[in-house]
TrEMBL record:
Residues 156-442 form the SAM-dependent MTase RsmB/NOP-type domain. This is RsmB/NOP family class I SAM-dependent RNA methyltransferase. InterPro entries: MeTrfase_RsmB-F_NOP2_cat (IPR049560), MeTrfase_RsmB-F_NOP2_dom (IPR001678), RCMT (IPR023267), RsmB-like_ferredoxin (IPR054728), SAM-dependent_MTases_sf (IPR029063). The keyword Transferase applies. GO terms for biological process: methylation. It comes from the Bacteria. Belongs to the class I-like SAM-binding methyltransferase superfamily. RsmB/NOP family.
Length: 443
């Protein structure tokens, strides 16, 4: 594809995502379905350009005040140039597969006046930028994050401008991490063991996985290391009755089912039948037969009432703002609002309240989100503890140490000793942002 055409396509895709009518990943997938002729490298450039614009929207918009032509094209040019330079840097060479270096490719795509404008933009130093153009966050998010992180705020915002690594979870039902790692290496995929999760592999780059044998036979699933740690905290055992209350497409369900060694009974509840449908092919690959997906109408569904007091372990992976996943879903910061978060917190409290009724005496309850906001995390957990003296909070750090997770202390915060809640951050742990609180119901 000629560089000019590729840039035109980038500008079109940027325009479509910036309406924020649909999640960016859905807009990108649809664009690729409509343009099947696009090759893998072109797709990577298109997606990364769009995601770069979403990540750095405020800075790029400020720069796009100058220059000429459609605004989306100016935004796309800034993203496009960054992505091409980054691709060349990562590949350790300045040339792409057609033998052109990244600067020649950019030159071929841009008009002469656009090139001049890009050079002027490139010459601006980060310290000359206003604060908002450096953190690229909506104003309502800035204070809650600064209040939690202090100077770490800037490390967080820098980490959120990068893409997330590709993590895999090895299905320990049939496979060992070390064996799968060797198998992937033979298939040309390099991966390192993840630092905290004993079942995780961190892949070098973003290779296509769906045709790899280990994937087809269910030995691996794509899952962020943080998400793996949440499933571990539930510590589900052989033969138990377990509920994954907000199972969605089953990322954590599959990890829990394997931890139960395919025994006992694991209910995967969700209000979205559509998401549970996406669990089915994954379940088939995994070889698990102890998982029972069930669509519920709401958290007070009859099915939930029938199981009251009968369940050994309940995971509530609550619907949340998703702001811990901004490296993967940068559009969320523009699609979410303080009001939407406020509404979510009411839903989260209600789901936690209902799901807790399932837990039997001596059983375990885990509340988790992929949010980095205290109002969706500590505030929900603390209000629940205060209202339910029969649920005793457990220290997540203690539980992780029992599971032999390295540096458990550094993964946790809150409570008297700073060990109460699992609290993962992209800039500190190289995972998505996650929270988890754990209770045991008094016997
Ligand atoms: C964070 S996602 C779950 C992700 C999933 N556990 C995983 O690991 O892939 C939250 C899920 O909660 C579901 N949900 C929303 N309201 C619910 C409710 N009242 N009861 C049960 N599930 C609900 C959503 O449909 C969504 O799939």
């Amino acid at each position: 594809m000629h560089p000019k055409q590729l840039l035109d396509a980038c500008a079109e895709l940027v325009k479509r995502t910036l309406t924020f009518e649909h999640p960016a990943d859905a807009v990108v997938s649809r664009f690729f379905r409509e343009n099947r002729y696009l090759g893998p490298r072109e797709r990577a450039t298109l997606a990364e350009t769009t995601y770069t614009v979403l990540r750095k929207k405020l800075r790029f918009e400020a720069l796009a005040h100058s220059g000429s032509g459609a605004r989306e094209r100016r935004l796309a040019i800034l993203g496009f140039a960054e992505v091409l330079r980054e691709q060349a840097r990562k590949e350790g060479k300045a040339r792409n597969k057609d033998g052109q270096d990244s600067e020649t490719f950019i030159k071929a795509a841009l008009l002469p006046q656009e090139l001049k404008w890009l050079a002027a933009c490139d010459s601006i130093q980060p310290e000359e930028l206003m604060e908002a153009h450096r953190h690229n966050l909506p104003e309502w998010l800035v204070e809650p994050l600064k209040a939690q992180l202090g100077d770490g705020f800037w490390q967080l915002t820098a980490s959120m401008e990068r893409s997330a690594p590709l993590d895999l979870r090895v299905n320990q039902l049939h496979d060992k991490r070390s064996d799968v790692r060797k198998e992937l290496e033979k298939a040309g995929i390099k991966a390192e063991p993840t630092p905290y999760s004993p079942m995780g592999l961190r892949v070098d780059g973003k290779p296509a996985l769906t045709k790899v044998d280990a994937f087809v036979r269910g030995a691996i699933e794509v899952q962020d290391e943080g998400s793996q740690l949440l499933a571990l905290l539930l510590d589900a055992k052989r033969g138990e009755m377990v509920v994954d209350f907000c199972a969605g497409a089953g990322g954590k369900t599959l990890a829990i089912g394997a931890a139960m060694r395919n025994t006992g009974r694991l209910y995967a509840f969700d209000v979205s039948g559509h998401r549970l449908d996406a669990l089915k092919p994954r379940l088939a690959r995994s070889g698990l037969s102890n998982v029972h997906p069930a669509a519920i109408a709401h958290e007070r569904d009859e099915r939930v009432k029938r199981l009251a007091g009968k369940i050994d372990r309940v995971l509530v992976d609550a619907p949340c703002s998703g702001l811990g996943t901004l490296r993967r879903n940068p559009d969320l910061k523009w699609r979410q609002s303080a009001k939407a978060v406020e509404e979510l917190t009411q839903k989260q409290a209600s789901i936690l309240e209902s799901s807790a009724r399932l837990v039997k005496a001596g059983g375990r309850l885990v509340y988790a989100t992929c949010s980095i906001l205290p109002q969706e995390n500590e505030a929900i957990a603390e209000a629940f503890s205060a209202a339910h003296p029969d649920f005793v909070p457990l220290d997540a750090a203690e539980l992780l140490e029992q599971l032999k997770i390295a540096d458990a202390d550094k993964l946790c915060s809150g409570g008297d000793a700073g060990r109460r809640y699992l609290r993962l951050w992209p800039h500190q742990h190289e995972t998505d942002g996650f929270f988890a609180a754990v209770w045991v119901r008094k016997a």
